Amino acid sequence: MTVYLHKGDLPADVKFGKIVAIDSETMGLLPVRDRLCVVQLSAGDGDAHLVQFEKDAYHAPVLSALMEDPNVLKLFHYARFDVAMMRYHLNVLATPIYCTKIASRLARTYTDRHGLKDLCRELLKVDLSKTQQSSDWGAETLTEEQKTYAASDVLYLHQIKDALDGMLVREGRQHLAAAAFAFLPIRSELDLSGWAEMDIFAH
């Protein structure tokens, strides 16, 4: 594994192919309050690229263009959060989207464990460490442990997608997953517009 750290934006010559795994590290869980600190990406080739942002410095045209490229599938785990974060701070709407958490909830109805660590353990036999999850991602210099943790959040998503796709097809639920993924940009807009805690489909 090689981890590349970039300050402020991706280099223009980095290529990810048709599917790019993406995650983010932030100062908290509220986009309006908490800043976006790191966006990590992988082409599924065992390498990861980390884009680190300084406070309030969110001009990243290369990364933004990738997020909005209609020919590149953006692969997330819990896309609802990452898409809203990037929409608020980078002013971009990531599409099209695949979310392994949604796919897992639709395919793996025999369990209530749908975290990335759970998926890595069951589907890939990989024990993922989450010890750096709550560390200070706003620090000026990231530790080697933080870089490794951030990279691990995207390195396995391509393999997880392949496994979940097979389960969705087997259970006849791929159309439900596709419709849920297509709704995610609207879900992020609802979250940012004040409906984060409300089920608009409830009675």
Q: Care to describe what's here?
A:
There is one protein chain. This protein is an alpha/beta fold and 203 residues long. It has one domain (3-195): Nucleotidyltransferase, domain 5 (2-Layer Sandwich), CATH 3.30.420.10. Helix content is 42%, strand content 16%. The protein has helices spanning 61-67, 79-90, 100-107, 116-124, 144-155, 157-171, 174-195; strands at residues 3-7, 19-26, 36-42, 48-52, 73-76, 97-99. A six-stranded mixed β-sheet has the order 1-4-3-2-5-6, sandwiched between helices. Strand 3 (36-42) and strand 4 form a beta hairpin. Helix 3 (100-107) runs parallel beside helix 6. The chain starts with a strand and ends in an 8-residue tail after the last helix. The mean pLDDT is 96.
Characteristics:
7 helices; Nucleotidyltransferase, domain 5; alpha/beta; 203 residues; 16% strand
Coarse morphology: globular
N-to-C series of helices and strands: EEEEHEHEHHHHH
Question: Could you name the CATH topology?
Answer: Nucleotidyltransferase, domain 5
Q: Regions with pLDDT < 50 over 5+ consecutive residues?
A: none
By CATH's scheme, which homologous superfamily applies? Ribonuclease H-like superfamily/Ribonuclease H
Concise summary:
With 203 residues, the protein is α/β, with parallel strands linked by helices. It has helices at 61-67, 79-90, 100-107, 116-124, 144-155, 157-171, 174-195; strands at residues 3-7, 19-26, 36-42, 48-52, 73-76, 97-99. A six-stranded mixed β-sheet has the order 1-4-3-2-5-6, with helices on both faces.
